[in-house]
């Protein structure tokens, strides 16, 4: 059964990736907004923001921009799922001897590949803007692992509206709160500059933990328990979103 599942997922993943390669503008569009934000924050607001550190502002805010890149990219996953649902692709696959969950996993893995490409593009622009890190291989691998888990978690969230939305706009609109969430975190300014109520929320939401862990890894600072909190958030969101997404899928195809 596992061999059947992996084989079906590989074939369907190839189908989804071909769609991506035929419309690379989706990856470009995903990267444009975070890059525009990065340019604006660094060159317009950066001089007025005191982060309390000696590093450049692009170093400080890059982790938050990376998370916004992922949050922007998963809207396309919901859109592609919605179009497949409306186009009857799922019904066709059901009539074939394919593993049912392989259809969803193909979309999820396609999202992972597309978002990783967008993240690389954003990182390259950040390097041109002056981002520097002396982090070692292990730290970079840790950052990559966190971003992969974060992408998978948000992608499975995207699966839910992709399957259940009534309109194309509704399928992708869910991503707006996720894009906004980093602004209520330590992504762009230290949380101790915020009003009490906002600060309490910011310090106890997942983005702050994830941003702080990535920032400390880039800066070669001790991560302490912060990295475990960040991983716990990513894995917890991934598990919950996966369960809800699979339940939604079963109701749709039953």
Automatic annotation (TrEMBL):
Its main subcellular localisation, reduced to a broad class, is membrane
Subcellular location, in the record's words?
Cell membrane; Membrane
Keywords from UniProt, A to Z, are: Antibiotic resistance, Cell membrane, Membrane, Transmembrane, Transmembrane helix, Transport
Question: What organism, scientifically named, is this protein from?
Answer: Microbispora rosea
- The membrane spanning regions, by residue number, are 27-49, 61-82, 103-131, 137-159, 226-245
**Highest taxon in the source lineage:** Bacteria
Q: Which GO terms describe its molecular function?
A: ABC-type transporter activity
Q: What is the lineage of its organism?
A: Bacteria, Bacillati, Actinomycetota, Actinomycetes, Streptosporangiales
Q: What is this protein called?
A: Transport permease protein
Q: Where is the ABC transmembrane type-2 domain?
A: 25-252
| The family this protein is said to belong to | Belongs to the ABC-2 integral membrane protein family.
